[in-house]
Amino acid sequence: IGACDWLLSLQVAIDFTASNGDPRNSCSLHYIHPYQPNEYLKALVAVGEICQDYDSDKMFPAFGFGARIPPDYKVSHDFAVNFNEDNPECAGIQGVVEAYQACLPKLQLYGPTNIAPIIQKVAMSASQEVHTKEAMQYFILLILTDGVITDMADTREAIVQASHLPMSIIIVGIGNADFGDMQMLDGDDGILRSPKGEPVLRDIVQFVPFRNFKH
Length: 215
Prior knowledge:
Elements: E1 7-15, H1 39-52, E2 59-65, E3 67-69, E4 74-76, E5 79-80, E6 89-91, H2 92-103, E7 108-109, H3 116-131, E8 137-145, H4 152-162, E9 167-173, H5 180-186, E10 205-209
Parallel strand pairs: 1-2, 1-8, 8-9, 9-10
Antiparallel strand pairs: 2-5, 2-6, 3-4, 3-7
Helix pairs in contact: 1-2, 3-4
Organism: Xenoophorus captivus
Pfam family, one: Copine
InterPro entries: Copine (IPR045052), Copine_C (IPR010734), VWF_A (IPR002035), vWFA_dom_sf (IPR036465)
């Protein structure tokens, strides 16, 4: 199968942990300004608009992690941003933007910053794709996060397992945190290994600090 025969499926994951700051406060990375997009929205649109040109149906599943969600306010690390777990898809990048803005007032930002669950969720979709005859879909998971992840061992394990599947991960660092751990996940400085020492089959992670590119 040639590379051009693949259909891309872009999936988005947004960090709703408390370290982002209270969305009602203008210092928060999640602050919804009436006239200008916050850094999450800028990054989402910048990357999403490029990727959406390659996504055939322009329907994007969007997930959140690190928040307490209604109705029972349990912490979730892989909830649908539109709160429809059966169909987390949003129509176009604009649909993701609208779902994000609508969900913010309903959430309690919390923590910790665990990203392994969302990697595993998308990996499950990619795995199902491989096990059907027409394995033609390639999954791109765009993770927008403000900082240091707390489940590094599980994340390394999840990435190693995902490297066997038709998927890649783009991590965009939002804000001014120390993103040293993210550089390690990227694998550019050496081969990423699981905690048991298993190497990635291929380098599937690209990390970008948004502050270096936002202008």
